[in-house]
Amino acid sequence: MIPRNVLVLTLSRVIWSMSDTNIDNFITAFMVALGASVPTIGLINAIGSFGAMLLYPIGGYIADKSGRVRLVSVSTLLYASSFIVYILAPSWRWAAVAMIYQSMVLFYVPAMNAVMADSIPVKRRGKLYAFNFALPNIVRIVAPYIGGLFIARFELIPAMKIGFAISLGVGVLVAAMRFIFLRETLLNIEEINWNPFRLVEESYREIDDSLRWVWDNVRSYTGVSMLLAFLSSMILPFWIIYAIDIIGLTPYEWGIILLWSGVAKAILSLFIGEIVDRYGSRNCFIFGFMLAIPCMYLFTVAQGFWMVLPIYSALVVSATFFWIASQVYLADSIPREIRGRVMAGLGSGMSMGVTGVGFPTGFLIFLPKVLGNIAGGFIYFLSPAAPWLLQSLLLAGGLAYTILMVRDPVNRYE
């Protein structure tokens, strides 16, 4: 009942989830422990996002012309190699190099998103995207808890370097799985010029056509996606710092919160997929906004573990609605033959900026992300609660815009 490529991509994400969740949740604290300041971390994320923005059109072009699977497999191996730099990093500057490199080699993501969209039947997209989301997150449930215990046992920096070593091995395994078991979904494969200068030239020549198609067909969705990319990147690196430094939680308590919210995310996502299939992406966007707006504010006034737990869990549920609904919306809206290039611009979904619920990508998304990374670091430095208060205000504007402008696609593409 599950298409081969969907199963391979889901199982490879399950294997990744056994190691990368611990790293993702504590990477900001790791950088701070090595000596980086909060504004510097925001700047590092911005540089990585800008570099990825320059490479995404190339990834989309290769995916639509020369095939998706080979690009996904080779680039997964490149991504895994970034952990070598993390392991050997003597200072935050070397860790910053690894972080930037890791962001830039993600230019293969449009190809992977296109493989997924190509492989899912139209009427089952909500359920199968939810399956692809839920199964790895079931594995992730205990990872933050284990990460908190691991750090408590070995201390932050040694524990993180052990985690990087594990992720390196897992990344090599995932690359091999994707190379051996994925099946190509591009119907017409063309010969392209692999000369780097010609490849860049041809890739960027295609951008104009992609942007014109986006403007004619999905510009309202794109507006919402760019707004959420800005907002999510503003707060994503700073949850753990705010929770520990301002609210007063311990890393262990934050791990428990991530554990419980992961349970809610994994269990509810399967139901959310069916809700998206039944009620449409637009209605799920509206619900996500209505849930997130008050919770972003409430996080700034929360005191102690028992107040943070339900607030953050509700934000995770909101983010899950956005992520699954936006994946379905894009797959329904974009023809197969241009999916790689259009998804290189729009990514594969929208994020609310909470850990473990999607990662917004695409060259149209990266500029708002860069601005959000820079703004978030400096705004947090001036007033730690301000990024979340700004979230509530701008999300209210996003809700109004979605109600007035966004519509579900009338004709859905295979």
Outline the structure in words.
With 414 residues, the protein is mainly α. The protein has one domain (4-405): Growth Hormone, Chain: A (Up-down Bundle). It contains 18 helices and no strands. It has helices at residues 4-33, 38-65, 69-88, 92-104, 109-119, 125-140, 143-154, 156-181, 196-205, 207-217, 219-235, 239-247, 251-279, 281-301, 305-333, 339-346, 363-382, 386-405. α5 (109-119) crosses α16 (339-346).
Rg value: 20 Å
Fraction of residues in helix? over 70%
Give the ordered list of helices and strands.
HHHHHHHHHHHHHHHHHH
Cα distance, first to last residue?
A: 17 Å
Annotated CATH topology? Growth Hormone, Chain: A
Q: List the total number of helices.
A: 18
**Estimated structural class:** mainly alpha
Supply the CATH architecture. Up-down Bundle
Low-confidence stretches: none
What is the highest CATH level, the class? Mainly Alpha
Shape: globular
Total separate domains? 1
Strand segment tally: 0
Strand content: under 5%
Question: Descriptors for this entry?
Answer:
mainly alpha; 18 helices; Growth Hormone, Chain: A; 414 residues; 0% strand; single chain
Short structural description:
Helices cover 80% and strands 0% of the residues. The chain has 414 residues and is an all-alpha fold. The chain has one domain: Up-down Bundle (Growth Hormone, Chain: A), CATH 1.20.1250.20.
